[in-house]
Amino acid sequence: MATDYDVVVVGGRCAGAPLAMLLARAGFKVCVFERHTSQFEMRSTHTIQLAGVRLLDQWGALPRLKRLGAPLLTRIHMIIHGVSISGLPWTATDQLSSTCVKRGALDTLLGELAIEANAEVLYQHDVRAFEFDGGRWTISASTPSGSQTAVSSRFLVAADGMMSSVASRLDLQFSMYRPSLTFTLYKYVPNTVGSECYILVDEWGAQACVPTTDGDMIYVIQRPTALFDRFKTGPQSFLREAADRIAKFAAIPPQATLCDGFRRALNQPSFIRAMLETGACLIGDAWSHKDSVTAQGITDAFLDADLLAKLMIANPQMDARFERALKLKWAQRTALYAEEVERANRLAGFLPATATQIEELQTIARNPELSSKFLGLDAKTYSEKDLARDLAGLS
Ligand SMILES: Cc1cc2nc3c(=O)[nH]c(=O)nc-3n(C[C@H](O)[C@H](O)[C@H](O)COP(=O)(O)OP(=O)(O)OC[C@H]3O[C@@H](n4cnc5c(N)ncnc54)[C@H](O)[C@@H]3O)c2cc1C
Predict the structure, then answer these.
(1) What pLDDT is stored for residue 202 in this prediction?
(2) Whose alpha carbon is nearest atom 17 of ligand 1?
(3) I need a labelling partner for 81 at 20 to 30 A (CA). Which of 5, 37, 199, 298 fits?
(4) In this predicted structure, what is the pLDDT of residue 246?
Protein backbone atom coordinates (compact mmCIF):
# COMPACT_ATOMS: atom_id res chain seq x y z
CA MET A 1 0.00 0.00 0.00
CA ALA A 2 1.24 3.51 -0.90
CA THR A 3 1.62 6.11 1.84
CA ASP A 4 1.57 9.33 -0.22
CA TYR A 5 -1.69 10.47 -1.81
CA ASP A 6 -3.12 13.48 -3.62
CA VAL A 7 -6.34 13.28 -1.62
CA VAL A 8 -7.37 11.46 1.55
CA VAL A 9 -11.12 11.10 2.16
CA VAL A 10 -12.46 10.37 5.65
CA GLY A 11 -15.77 8.46 5.31
CA GLY A 12 -16.59 6.14 2.43
CA ARG A 13 -20.32 6.36 1.79
CA CYS A 14 -22.61 8.53 -0.37
CA ALA A 15 -20.27 11.52 -0.34
CA GLY A 16 -16.81 9.98 0.11
CA ALA A 17 -17.01 6.93 -2.19
CA PRO A 18 -18.24 8.75 -5.34
CA LEU A 19 -15.66 11.50 -4.81
CA ALA A 20 -12.91 8.88 -4.58
CA MET A 21 -14.25 7.13 -7.68
CA LEU A 22 -14.37 10.32 -9.76
CA LEU A 23 -10.91 11.51 -8.69
CA ALA A 24 -9.29 8.09 -9.14
CA ARG A 25 -10.82 7.80 -12.62
CA ALA A 26 -9.15 11.14 -13.43
CA GLY A 27 -5.75 9.81 -12.30
CA PHE A 28 -5.59 11.20 -8.75
CA LYS A 29 -4.04 9.03 -6.06
CA VAL A 30 -6.84 8.70 -3.52
CA CYS A 31 -7.16 6.92 -0.18
CA VAL A 32 -10.48 6.50 1.67
CA PHE A 33 -10.71 5.65 5.35
CA GLU A 34 -14.07 4.22 6.42
CA ARG A 35 -14.68 3.31 10.05
CA HIS A 36 -17.26 0.57 9.33
CA THR A 37 -17.59 -2.24 6.79
CA SER A 38 -19.30 -1.39 3.48
CA GLN A 39 -22.42 -3.40 4.44
CA PHE A 40 -22.98 -1.49 7.69
CA GLU A 41 -26.64 -0.34 7.50
CA MET A 42 -26.77 3.41 8.09
CA ARG A 43 -29.94 4.79 9.69
CA SER A 44 -31.46 6.13 6.51
CA THR A 45 -34.60 5.45 4.53
CA HIS A 46 -32.67 5.24 1.26
CA THR A 47 -34.58 7.21 -1.39
CA ILE A 48 -32.25 8.39 -4.14
CA GLN A 49 -33.94 11.32 -5.81
CA LEU A 50 -34.09 11.72 -9.59
CA ALA A 51 -31.19 14.20 -9.57
CA GLY A 52 -29.08 11.54 -7.80
CA VAL A 53 -30.16 8.76 -10.17
CA ARG A 54 -29.11 11.00 -13.07
CA LEU A 55 -25.65 11.35 -11.53
CA LEU A 56 -25.38 7.58 -11.08
CA ASP A 57 -26.29 7.30 -14.77
CA GLN A 58 -23.56 9.81 -15.74
CA TRP A 59 -21.07 7.86 -13.63
CA GLY A 60 -21.93 4.66 -15.55
CA ALA A 61 -23.36 3.02 -12.42
CA LEU A 62 -27.01 2.73 -13.45
CA PRO A 63 -26.93 -0.84 -14.89
CA ARG A 64 -25.39 -2.08 -11.63
CA LEU A 65 -27.81 -0.06 -9.55
CA LYS A 66 -30.70 -1.63 -11.50
CA ARG A 67 -29.27 -5.12 -10.88
CA LEU A 68 -29.72 -4.50 -7.14
CA GLY A 69 -33.43 -4.92 -7.89
CA ALA A 70 -35.02 -1.73 -6.61
CA PRO A 71 -37.55 -0.38 -9.13
CA LEU A 72 -37.33 3.10 -10.56
CA LEU A 73 -40.56 4.70 -9.30
CA THR A 74 -43.33 4.77 -11.88
CA ARG A 75 -45.77 6.88 -9.86
CA ILE A 76 -45.95 8.80 -6.60
CA HIS A 77 -49.26 9.13 -4.73
CA MET A 78 -49.28 11.80 -2.07
CA ILE A 79 -52.11 12.75 0.27
CA ILE A 80 -51.09 16.10 1.69
CA HIS A 81 -53.37 17.89 4.13
CA GLY A 82 -56.26 15.86 2.74
CA VAL A 83 -55.52 16.68 -0.93
CA SER A 84 -54.53 13.78 -3.24
CA ILE A 85 -51.72 14.58 -5.66
CA SER A 86 -50.44 11.89 -7.94
CA GLY A 87 -47.83 11.99 -10.68
CA LEU A 88 -44.43 11.12 -11.90
CA PRO A 89 -41.53 13.52 -11.37
CA TRP A 90 -39.61 12.60 -14.49
CA THR A 91 -39.51 13.78 -18.04
CA ALA A 92 -39.78 11.53 -21.07
CA THR A 93 -36.29 12.53 -22.23
CA ASP A 94 -34.29 10.07 -20.14
CA GLN A 95 -37.01 7.85 -18.62
CA LEU A 96 -35.21 7.95 -15.29
CA SER A 97 -36.89 8.29 -11.94
CA SER A 98 -36.19 8.22 -8.22
CA THR A 99 -35.42 4.87 -6.57
CA CYS A 100 -34.81 3.47 -3.08
CA VAL A 101 -31.92 1.09 -2.38
CA LYS A 102 -31.07 -0.36 1.06
CA ARG A 103 -27.94 1.32 2.32
CA GLY A 104 -25.84 -1.83 2.71
CA ALA A 105 -26.32 -2.56 -1.01
CA LEU A 106 -25.89 1.05 -2.14
CA ASP A 107 -22.82 1.74 -0.03
CA THR A 108 -21.20 -1.54 -1.11
CA LEU A 109 -21.78 -0.61 -4.77
CA LEU A 110 -20.34 2.89 -4.28
CA GLY A 111 -17.28 1.42 -2.52
CA GLU A 112 -16.78 -1.13 -5.32
CA LEU A 113 -16.91 1.63 -7.93
CA ALA A 114 -14.21 3.57 -6.05
CA ILE A 115 -12.01 0.45 -5.72
CA GLU A 116 -12.45 -0.44 -9.42
CA ALA A 117 -11.32 3.09 -10.29
CA ASN A 118 -8.13 2.37 -8.32
CA ALA A 119 -8.83 4.30 -5.17
CA GLU A 120 -7.45 2.70 -2.02
CA VAL A 121 -10.54 2.08 0.15
CA LEU A 122 -9.70 0.97 3.67
CA TYR A 123 -12.75 -0.28 5.57
CA GLN A 124 -12.70 -0.62 9.34
CA HIS A 125 -10.15 2.15 9.56
CA ASP A 126 -11.09 4.83 12.05
CA VAL A 127 -9.27 8.14 11.55
CA ARG A 128 -8.11 9.23 14.99
CA ALA A 129 -5.57 11.97 14.21
CA PHE A 130 -4.43 14.29 11.47
CA GLU A 131 -2.05 17.15 11.21
CA PHE A 132 -1.20 19.77 8.56
CA ASP A 133 2.33 21.16 8.15
CA GLY A 134 1.27 23.90 5.72
CA GLY A 135 1.93 21.71 2.68
CA ARG A 136 0.80 18.17 3.45
CA TRP A 137 -1.48 16.31 5.83
CA THR A 138 -0.46 13.32 7.90
CA ILE A 139 -3.48 11.16 8.70
CA SER A 140 -3.51 8.19 11.09
CA ALA A 141 -6.19 5.53 11.40
CA SER A 142 -6.69 2.50 13.65
CA THR A 143 -8.33 -0.85 12.93
CA PRO A 144 -10.44 -2.83 15.44
CA SER A 145 -7.41 -5.10 16.05
CA GLY A 146 -5.41 -2.04 17.10
CA SER A 147 -3.08 -1.83 14.09
CA GLN A 148 -2.21 1.68 12.89
CA THR A 149 -1.96 3.11 9.37
CA ALA A 150 -0.46 6.52 8.63
CA VAL A 151 -0.52 8.22 5.22
CA SER A 152 0.16 11.68 3.87
CA SER A 153 -1.80 13.76 1.33
CA ARG A 154 -1.97 17.18 -0.27
CA PHE A 155 -5.68 17.55 0.39
CA LEU A 156 -8.03 16.23 3.07
CA VAL A 157 -11.76 15.74 2.47
CA ALA A 158 -14.11 15.17 5.39
CA ALA A 159 -17.04 13.02 4.23
CA ASP A 160 -17.51 11.67 7.73
CA GLY A 161 -21.17 12.46 8.28
CA MET A 162 -23.27 14.73 10.45
CA MET A 163 -21.15 14.26 13.59
CA SER A 164 -17.96 14.97 11.62
CA SER A 165 -14.99 14.71 13.94
CA VAL A 166 -12.82 16.30 11.24
CA ALA A 167 -15.07 19.40 11.25
CA SER A 168 -14.87 19.57 15.06
CA ARG A 169 -11.11 19.25 15.12
CA LEU A 170 -10.70 21.87 12.38
CA ASP A 171 -13.12 24.00 14.40
CA LEU A 172 -15.37 24.67 11.40
CA GLN A 173 -18.37 26.57 12.74
CA PHE A 174 -22.07 26.32 11.86
CA SER A 175 -23.30 29.15 9.63
CA MET A 176 -26.86 27.93 10.26
CA TYR A 177 -28.26 25.52 12.84
CA ARG A 178 -31.88 24.41 13.50
CA PRO A 179 -32.41 21.81 16.23
CA SER A 180 -34.07 18.52 15.38
CA LEU A 181 -37.87 18.71 15.07
CA THR A 182 -38.72 15.13 14.19
CA PHE A 183 -37.92 11.52 14.84
CA THR A 184 -38.23 8.71 12.32
CA LEU A 185 -39.22 5.06 12.62
CA TYR A 186 -38.92 2.64 9.75
CA LYS A 187 -39.07 -1.02 8.95
CA TYR A 188 -39.10 -3.32 5.94
CA VAL A 189 -42.26 -5.17 4.96
CA PRO A 190 -43.03 -7.21 1.82
CA ASN A 191 -43.61 -4.98 -1.20
CA THR A 192 -47.29 -4.56 -2.05
CA VAL A 193 -46.90 -1.28 -3.95
CA GLY A 194 -44.97 -2.56 -6.99
CA SER A 195 -42.97 0.35 -8.35
CA GLU A 196 -45.22 3.05 -6.88
CA CYS A 197 -44.69 5.14 -3.76
CA TYR A 198 -47.31 6.32 -1.26
CA ILE A 199 -46.85 9.34 1.01
CA LEU A 200 -49.22 10.82 3.59
CA VAL A 201 -48.46 14.24 5.11
CA ASP A 202 -50.51 16.21 7.61
CA GLU A 203 -50.04 18.18 10.79
CA TRP A 204 -49.36 14.95 12.73
CA GLY A 205 -46.36 13.99 10.65
CA ALA A 206 -45.54 12.03 7.54
CA GLN A 207 -45.55 8.40 6.58
CA ALA A 208 -44.59 6.65 3.41
CA CYS A 209 -44.24 3.32 1.67
CA VAL A 210 -41.44 3.15 -0.89
CA PRO A 211 -40.41 0.01 -2.81
CA THR A 212 -36.81 -1.01 -2.20
CA THR A 213 -34.38 -3.91 -2.66
CA ASP A 214 -34.92 -7.61 -1.70
CA GLY A 215 -38.63 -7.52 -2.69
CA ASP A 216 -39.36 -5.27 0.29
CA MET A 217 -40.84 -1.86 0.72
CA ILE A 218 -39.71 0.51 3.40
CA TYR A 219 -42.45 1.76 5.65
CA VAL A 220 -41.56 5.07 7.31
CA ILE A 221 -43.26 7.03 10.07
CA GLN A 222 -42.00 10.50 10.87
CA ARG A 223 -43.39 12.43 13.83
CA PRO A 224 -42.67 15.64 15.77
CA THR A 225 -40.05 15.16 18.47
CA ALA A 226 -42.59 16.39 21.05
CA LEU A 227 -44.43 13.07 20.62
CA PHE A 228 -41.37 10.94 21.32
CA ASP A 229 -41.97 10.70 25.06
CA ARG A 230 -45.31 9.07 24.32
CA PHE A 231 -43.52 6.67 22.03
CA LYS A 232 -41.01 5.81 24.74
CA THR A 233 -43.63 5.13 27.40
CA GLY A 234 -46.31 3.49 25.26
CA PRO A 235 -45.02 2.31 21.93
CA GLN A 236 -47.96 -0.06 21.37
CA SER A 237 -50.63 2.61 21.62
CA PHE A 238 -48.52 5.11 19.70
CA LEU A 239 -48.05 2.68 16.85
CA ARG A 240 -51.72 1.62 16.88
CA GLU A 241 -52.58 5.28 16.48
CA ALA A 242 -50.13 5.51 13.57
CA ALA A 243 -51.75 2.41 12.07
CA ASP A 244 -55.19 3.99 12.30
CA ARG A 245 -53.97 6.96 10.37
CA ILE A 246 -52.09 4.79 7.92
CA ALA A 247 -55.27 2.80 7.26
CA LYS A 248 -56.07 5.66 4.87
CA PHE A 249 -53.49 4.06 2.62
CA ALA A 250 -55.07 1.28 0.61
CA ALA A 251 -51.64 -0.15 -0.12
CA ILE A 252 -50.41 -0.92 3.40
CA PRO A 253 -50.23 -4.70 3.70
CA PRO A 254 -52.57 -6.21 6.27
CA GLN A 255 -49.77 -8.52 7.44
CA ALA A 256 -47.53 -5.60 8.45
CA THR A 257 -47.17 -5.71 12.22
CA LEU A 258 -46.45 -2.27 13.53
CA CYS A 259 -45.11 -2.93 16.98
CA ASP A 260 -41.73 -4.51 16.45
CA GLY A 261 -38.66 -4.32 14.34
CA PHE A 262 -38.66 -0.56 13.81
CA ARG A 263 -35.38 1.24 13.42
CA ARG A 264 -35.32 4.69 14.96
CA ALA A 265 -33.48 7.90 14.18
CA LEU A 266 -33.94 10.60 16.75
CA ASN A 267 -31.54 13.39 16.04
CA GLN A 268 -32.08 15.24 12.77
CA PRO A 269 -30.87 18.82 13.08
CA SER A 270 -30.70 20.99 9.98
CA PHE A 271 -27.44 22.88 9.58
CA ILE A 272 -24.75 24.22 7.30
CA ARG A 273 -21.11 24.42 8.36
CA ALA A 274 -18.25 26.43 6.99
CA MET A 275 -16.77 23.99 4.50
CA LEU A 276 -13.25 25.10 3.81
CA GLU A 277 -9.96 25.21 5.62
CA THR A 278 -6.59 25.56 3.86
CA GLY A 279 -5.95 22.21 2.20
CA ALA A 280 -9.21 20.65 3.40
CA CYS A 281 -12.96 20.75 2.88
CA LEU A 282 -16.19 19.09 3.96
CA ILE A 283 -18.83 17.42 1.80
CA GLY A 284 -22.10 15.53 2.35
CA ASP A 285 -23.60 15.47 5.84
CA ALA A 286 -20.29 16.66 7.29
CA TRP A 287 -20.85 19.97 5.53
CA SER A 288 -24.61 20.27 5.85
CA HIS A 289 -27.57 18.27 7.04
CA LYS A 290 -31.31 18.52 6.53
CA ASP A 291 -34.12 16.86 8.42
CA SER A 292 -34.77 13.64 6.50
CA VAL A 293 -38.36 14.74 5.72
CA THR A 294 -37.32 15.61 2.14
CA ALA A 295 -35.18 12.45 1.73
CA GLN A 296 -32.47 14.33 -0.17
CA GLY A 297 -29.26 13.68 1.82
CA ILE A 298 -27.92 10.91 -0.42
CA THR A 299 -28.60 12.93 -3.56
CA ASP A 300 -27.01 16.03 -2.02
CA ALA A 301 -23.95 14.01 -1.04
CA PHE A 302 -23.65 12.86 -4.68
CA LEU A 303 -24.01 16.47 -5.87
CA ASP A 304 -21.29 17.64 -3.47
CA ALA A 305 -18.95 14.84 -4.58
CA ASP A 306 -19.57 15.61 -8.24
CA LEU A 307 -18.98 19.34 -7.80
CA LEU A 308 -15.81 18.92 -5.75
CA ALA A 309 -14.40 16.34 -8.17
CA LYS A 310 -15.02 18.67 -11.14
CA LEU A 311 -13.22 21.52 -9.37
CA MET A 312 -10.24 19.34 -8.46
CA ILE A 313 -9.99 17.84 -11.93
CA ALA A 314 -10.04 21.35 -13.45
CA ASN A 315 -7.29 22.46 -11.01
CA PRO A 316 -5.17 19.37 -10.34
CA GLN A 317 -2.47 21.44 -8.62
CA MET A 318 -5.02 22.24 -5.90
CA ASP A 319 -3.30 25.58 -5.41
CA ALA A 320 -4.61 28.97 -4.27
CA ARG A 321 -6.54 29.35 -7.55
CA PHE A 322 -8.32 26.08 -6.81
CA GLU A 323 -9.18 27.21 -3.27
CA ARG A 324 -10.61 30.47 -4.66
CA ALA A 325 -12.75 28.54 -7.19
CA LEU A 326 -13.87 26.16 -4.45
CA LYS A 327 -14.83 29.04 -2.17
CA LEU A 328 -16.84 30.72 -4.91
CA LYS A 329 -18.69 27.57 -6.01
CA TRP A 330 -19.44 26.60 -2.43
CA ALA A 331 -20.77 30.08 -1.65
CA GLN A 332 -23.21 29.58 -4.54
CA ARG A 333 -24.06 26.07 -3.35
CA THR A 334 -24.55 27.32 0.22
CA ALA A 335 -27.01 30.00 -0.95
CA LEU A 336 -29.02 27.41 -2.87
CA TYR A 337 -28.79 24.88 -0.10
CA ALA A 338 -29.81 27.34 2.62
CA GLU A 339 -33.24 27.66 0.96
CA GLU A 340 -33.56 23.87 0.90
CA VAL A 341 -32.55 23.56 4.54
CA GLU A 342 -35.19 26.15 5.47
CA ARG A 343 -37.80 24.26 3.44
CA ALA A 344 -36.91 20.95 5.12
CA ASN A 345 -37.06 22.62 8.52
CA ARG A 346 -40.43 24.17 7.68
CA LEU A 347 -41.85 20.83 6.50
CA ALA A 348 -40.48 19.11 9.59
CA GLY A 349 -42.54 21.53 11.72
CA PHE A 350 -45.68 19.71 10.45
CA LEU A 351 -47.82 22.81 10.84
CA PRO A 352 -51.51 22.67 9.90
CA ALA A 353 -52.03 23.98 6.35
CA THR A 354 -53.60 27.41 5.90
CA ALA A 355 -56.68 27.91 3.71
CA THR A 356 -54.46 29.46 0.99
CA GLN A 357 -52.10 26.48 1.04
CA ILE A 358 -55.01 24.05 0.73
CA GLU A 359 -56.36 26.04 -2.22
CA GLU A 360 -52.94 25.89 -3.90
CA LEU A 361 -52.71 22.14 -3.28
CA GLN A 362 -56.17 21.70 -4.82
CA THR A 363 -55.09 23.71 -7.88
CA ILE A 364 -52.01 21.48 -8.20
CA ALA A 365 -54.12 18.32 -7.81
CA ARG A 366 -56.45 19.39 -10.65
CA ASN A 367 -53.52 19.89 -13.04
CA PRO A 368 -51.66 16.63 -13.91
CA GLU A 369 -48.60 18.41 -15.34
CA LEU A 370 -48.27 20.63 -12.30
CA SER A 371 -48.83 17.62 -10.01
CA SER A 372 -45.83 15.86 -11.54
CA LYS A 373 -43.74 19.01 -11.26
CA PHE A 374 -44.80 19.49 -7.62
CA LEU A 375 -43.62 15.96 -6.81
CA GLY A 376 -40.29 17.00 -8.31
CA LEU A 377 -39.70 19.39 -5.36
CA ASP A 378 -38.13 16.53 -3.40
CA ALA A 379 -36.71 14.90 -6.54
CA LYS A 380 -34.72 18.15 -6.90
CA THR A 381 -36.00 18.79 -10.40
CA TYR A 382 -38.29 21.69 -9.47
CA SER A 383 -38.06 24.56 -6.99
CA GLU A 384 -40.47 26.47 -4.78
CA LYS A 385 -39.75 29.56 -6.91
CA ASP A 386 -40.79 27.63 -10.05
CA LEU A 387 -43.94 26.49 -8.26
CA ALA A 388 -44.86 30.05 -7.22
CA ARG A 389 -44.32 31.20 -10.83
CA ASP A 390 -46.39 28.35 -12.29
CA LEU A 391 -49.20 28.89 -9.80
CA ALA A 392 -49.22 32.62 -10.58
CA GLY A 393 -49.37 31.76 -14.30
CA LEU A 394 -52.53 29.71 -13.71
CA SER A 395 -54.42 32.36 -11.76
C1 LIG B 1 -33.94 8.42 9.46
C2 LIG B 1 -33.21 8.95 8.27
C3 LIG B 1 -33.77 8.78 7.04
C4 LIG B 1 -33.11 9.27 5.92
N5 LIG B 1 -33.68 9.05 4.71
C6 LIG B 1 -33.05 9.49 3.62
C7 LIG B 1 -33.60 9.21 2.32
O8 LIG B 1 -34.62 8.53 2.17
N9 LIG B 1 -32.95 9.72 1.25
C10 LIG B 1 -31.82 10.46 1.38
O11 LIG B 1 -31.29 10.93 0.37
N12 LIG B 1 -31.26 10.70 2.57
C13 LIG B 1 -31.85 10.22 3.69
N14 LIG B 1 -31.27 10.45 4.89
C15 LIG B 1 -30.01 11.22 4.95
C16 LIG B 1 -28.84 10.36 4.46
O17 LIG B 1 -28.78 9.16 5.18
C18 LIG B 1 -27.54 11.16 4.62
O19 LIG B 1 -27.71 12.45 4.12
C20 LIG B 1 -26.38 10.47 3.89
O21 LIG B 1 -26.10 9.24 4.48
C22 LIG B 1 -25.14 11.36 3.94
O23 LIG B 1 -24.05 10.67 3.38
P24 LIG B 1 -22.56 11.02 3.83
O25 LIG B 1 -21.68 10.13 3.03
O26 LIG B 1 -22.34 12.47 3.81
O27 LIG B 1 -22.50 10.63 5.37
P28 LIG B 1 -22.75 9.25 6.08
O29 LIG B 1 -23.66 8.39 5.30
O30 LIG B 1 -23.10 9.58 7.50
O31 LIG B 1 -21.31 8.55 6.04
C32 LIG B 1 -20.24 9.03 6.80
C33 LIG B 1 -19.28 7.88 6.99
O34 LIG B 1 -18.11 8.39 7.63
C35 LIG B 1 -17.62 7.37 8.46
N36 LIG B 1 -16.78 7.99 9.49
C37 LIG B 1 -17.13 8.88 10.45
N38 LIG B 1 -16.07 9.23 11.20
C39 LIG B 1 -15.03 8.52 10.71
C40 LIG B 1 -13.66 8.44 11.06
N41 LIG B 1 -13.17 9.15 12.07
N42 LIG B 1 -12.86 7.60 10.37
C43 LIG B 1 -13.35 6.87 9.33
N44 LIG B 1 -14.64 6.92 8.95
C45 LIG B 1 -15.46 7.73 9.63
C46 LIG B 1 -18.86 6.71 9.06
O47 LIG B 1 -18.58 5.38 9.46
C48 LIG B 1 -19.83 6.77 7.89
O49 LIG B 1 -19.83 5.57 7.17
C50 LIG B 1 -31.88 9.96 6.04
C51 LIG B 1 -31.30 10.11 7.30
C52 LIG B 1 -31.96 9.61 8.40
C53 LIG B 1 -31.33 9.78 9.75
Answers:
(1) 87
(2) 44
(3) 298
(4) 59
Query: SS3 sequence, 43-58?
Result: CCCCEECHHHHHHHHH
Ligand 1 atom closest to residue 141's alpha carbon, by position in its atom list: 42
Query: What pLDDT score does 240 carry?
Result: 63
What is the C-alpha separation between 182 and 264, in angstroms, rounded?
Answer: 11
Q: Is 33 in the pocket of ligand 1 (CB under 6 A)?
A: yes
The helices-and-strands tally (H runs, E runs) of the chain is 12, 20
**Distance (Å) from CA 147 to ligand 1 centroid:** 26
CATH architecture of 4-46+102-178+269-348: 3-Layer(bba) Sandwich (3.50)
The backbone torsions φ and ψ at residue 168, rounded to the nearest 5 degrees and listed phi first, read -65, -45
CB 199 within 8 A of CB 310: no
Mean per-residue pLDDT pooled into runs of 10, the chain (395 residues):
92 98 98 94 91 96 95 93 88 84 96 98 97 94 96 97 95 94 89 90 89 93 82 60 60 59 86 90 96 96 98 94 93 93 93 96 96 92 93 90
pLDDT of residue 185: 86
Q: What is the pLDDT of residue 190?
A: 87
**CA separation for the pair 18, 307 (Å, rounded):** 11
Residue ranges per structural domain of the chain: 4-46+102-178+269-348, 182-265, 355-394
Q: Of 10, 13, 140, 307, which is best to mutate to test ligand 1, by the most ligand atoms within 8 angstroms of its C-beta?
A: 13
Give the Cα separation of 209 and 188 in Å (integer). Answer: 9
Question: What is the CA(84)–ligand 1 centre distance, in A?
Answer: 32
Q: Specify the pLDDT at position 339.
A: 92
Query: 215: alpha, beta or left, given left = phi > 0 and alpha = psi -120 to 50?
Result: left
Instruction: Report the alpha-carbon distance of residue 299 to residue 312 in Å, rounded.
Output: 20
Is the entire prediction scored with pTM above 0.85? yes
CA 270 – ligand 1 centroid, Å: 14
